[in-house]
């Protein structure tokens, strides 16, 4: 069964804006789906509905993942906590015993290339490193579904290229189901196994394109 399924979903905001209309899709484990389209076509709304942060106005959203993680463009780290403590937060909220969550957080930071940076506070880290902490925090919970809202949009080009490679490697390792919003077609094509193109107001899916390759990349 797919991890995520939208069936004929409409989203109306209280302001009267219809952000989505007639949206149907499904995403399964091992699929990395990019979502592209002009500003205002409902990409972020689609992700918020997928996460359960917002409810559909009509139609159904079915998210069967035990854990869903959301990564935003702004890494939203807690400035008064070290990198390690930022990643441990997830385990604290879930009641994971201290030793176990320390181990998992250190492992997640190692996976994103931040071994040795555990005690650093966010302000001491570069933009790319902060984004890595944010990704470690998302992946430490072993999500079945990971949602990315333009996570690399604020990074310089070199750092963005590094992060794309990094994320692809993590995805190959963990094989969650992923939805990734981006303004960059090349980023979509590089990262994903499928590209969803949205357009219009209200936003609709106008194309759903499987890419002719799969992981691992040749
Ligand atoms: P995108 O991510 O593609 O730029 P959004 O999902 O952010 O598009 O927005 C889709 C439409 O819904 C836009 O017209 C936007 O102004 C509107 N919208 C988004 N969030 C809200 C909200 N909380 N209240 C009212 N309107 C909203
Ligand atoms: P990133 O590509 O992760 O943003 P940068 O390009 O900013 O990293 O920095 C390049 C390298 O410099 C990093 O991989 C890291 O080894 C080192 N570095 C960056 N910030 C710090 C820091 N605050 N303390 C120590 N080393 C750092």
In terms of topology, how is this protein built?
Blueprint: E1 4-12, E2 18-27, E3 32-36, H1 43-51, E4 58-63, E5 68-71, H2 83-94, H3 98-111, H4 127-139, E6 145-149, H5 157-174, E7 177-181, H6 185-191, E8 194-199, E9 204-210
Parallel strand pairs: 3-7, 3-8, 5-6, 6-7
Antiparallel strand pairs: 1-2, 1-4, 8-9
Helix pairs in contact: 2-3, 2-4, 3-4, 4-5
The structure holds adenosine-5'-diphosphate (ADP) (2 copies).
How is this structure best described in words?
With 218 residues, the protein is of the alpha/beta class. It is globular and about 45 Å long. It contains six helices and nine strands. Strands 5-6-7-3-8-9 form a six-stranded mixed β-sheet, with helices on both faces. The chain is 33% helix and 26% strand. The structure holds adenosine-5'-diphosphate (2 copies). One adenosine-5'-diphosphate (ADP) binds next to helix 4 and helix 5.
- Compute the gyration radius: what is it? 17 Å
Secondary-structure element order, N to C:
EEEHEEHHHEHEHEE
Quick one: biggest sheet? 6 strands, mixed
Number of helices: 6
Could you list the spans in which at least 5 consecutive residues all have pLDDT below 50?
none
| Structural classification | alpha/beta
Mean pLDDT: 94
Quote the distance from N terminus to C terminus.
Answer: 28 Å
> In what order do the strands lie side by side in the largest sheet?
5-6-7-3-8-9
Content of β-strand: 25-35%
Gross geometry: globular
Task: Name the ligand types.
Answer: adenosine-5'-diphosphate
Number of strands: 9
